[in-house]
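REVIEWER CHECKLIST
Item 1: Sequence provided? yes
Item 2: Single chain? yes
Item 3: Sequence as submitted:
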Amino acid sequence: MVNKKYFLVSLVLITAFFIYSPSLKNDFIWDDYHLVVDNVNIRTFNNLTSAFTSHLFEASGGSNFYRPLATISFMFDFSLWKLNPFGYHLTNLILHLLTVLLIYLFVSRVFKNSDIGLLTCLIFAVHPVNTEAVTYISGRADGLSSVLFLSALLLYMRFKEAGRRFLFFLSILFFIFALLTKEAMLIFPLVLIIYDVFILKENSVNKKTLALYAPYFLTVIIYMIFRLFVLGMPLGFMRHMPYNLYIFTTPKILILYLGLLFFPVILHMERIEPVVNSVFNPQAAVFLITIIFIIWLLALLYKRNQELFFFAVFFIITLMPVLNILVINAIMAEHWLYLPSIGI
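Item 4: Structure as written out by the authors:
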């Protein structure tokens, strides 16, 4: 007899597949032409090495995105499908299904409750805000990096349970792969720390814990040095306006992201949000009050439920790279919610 748990998870995966199956008929759009159609670098595996020494848009112009594994994934697609968009969309959809499965395993393990894991992965699987990350071929990095990120995290969690060293080394390896797929994955070590502190209740800092975190932080440092001094690509992206305007706008963007998760209506591929130009702006006061409420809610969760508090902090940490605090690219994009939304 088929295990009920496996049957329900399979049902969620089948549901997600059919919901997104219309995207398999879609054509190439926007950056797909730069990254796939006109990108001669993905047409042969002879360019495999160059993927690690160039930026994502090397074939079509300048950028500051270093995502060699995303480029290599397009190489594999081209080897199978040439310029048939069906295959590229199929890969994106498969990555989404893998993410859904990994979310089930991740959440179930944290709560020690497969029902909560099932409900979480179901909501994620069908949530409209994920449409951009799944159906846009050039959004490949979101799905691929999420699979690698969650794999690295699950391997670490399993290592903490079983104590088997090879799981630890595999976790580090998958983290490196995730980082080579999307820059935002550099916050991974912080997620490990909050997992240990709030889920495993390991609050003491000693040589053993430092030795566990050291390889992850060392990976981040080496990655940053390599980008800056070898590739000449600092982590920061373009700034369209004075930095202080982003600081005032960040609380607003955080609230808008939360709004999209609870009320996913009027979705856009390219969002243009007016900035808040002063702390005295009426909008700033509204968002400041909302932020204070969120902090109060976090404090309440901390006292009452460590698992829920962990996932609330997970949302904030994984969203940090795109909140325009340290790294500025664009003000807001729906596909940036793909990994953070798990927390909500």
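Item 5: Key structural point noted by reviewer: The chain has 13 helices and no strands.
Item 6: Recommendation: ____
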